[in-house]
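Q: Given only this backbone (109 positions), what sequence would you predict?
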C-alpha cells in the first residue's frame, strides 16, 4: 500500500495482481471517493479527476464538500483518566489539548 496526496485529500492505493490494476480510495473524508489506473501516471490523473469530479458534484448540488478533517474531534475518557491527563498537563505547564495532541502526534509518527 502507498499514499497519494492531491488538493488536501489523501488516498490509500493498492495493487490488484489479479486485475493488474492499481485502485485507490480517499481516506481523509467521510464521503467515498475512489479511482483506478493501470500505471502511475494514469493513477495520478484518475485521483485528481475523481477529487475534482467530487468537488464539482457538490457544487452542482449546492452542498459543501466533506473536506479533509477539521482538526476537531471529541474524545471520551474515563473520569480517572481525564483527571490524570489534566493533572499531567498542569504539571507540564501546558493545556490539556496540547498534552493530548502532542501525545497523539507521537503515537502516529
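A: Predicted residues:
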Amino acid at each position: 500500500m502507498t499514499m497519494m496526496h492531491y488538493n488536501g485529500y489523501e488516498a490509500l492505493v493498492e495493487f490488484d495482481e489479479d486485475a493488474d490494476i492499481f485502485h485507490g480510495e480517499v481516506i481523509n473524508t467521510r464521503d467515498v471517493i475512489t479511482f483506478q489506473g493501470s500505471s502511475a501516471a494514469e493513477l495520478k490523473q484518475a485521483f485528481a479527476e475523481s477529487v475534482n469530479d467530487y468537488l464539482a458534484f457538490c457544487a452542482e448540488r449546492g452542498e459543501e464538500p466533506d473536506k479533509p478533517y477539521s482538526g476537531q474531534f471529541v474524545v471520551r475518557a474515563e473520569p480517572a483518566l481525564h483527571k490524570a491527563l489534566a493533572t499531567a498537563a498542569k504539571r507540564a505547564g501546558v493545556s490539556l489539548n496540547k498534552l493530548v495532541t502532542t501525545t497523539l502526534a507521537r503515537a502516529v509518527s
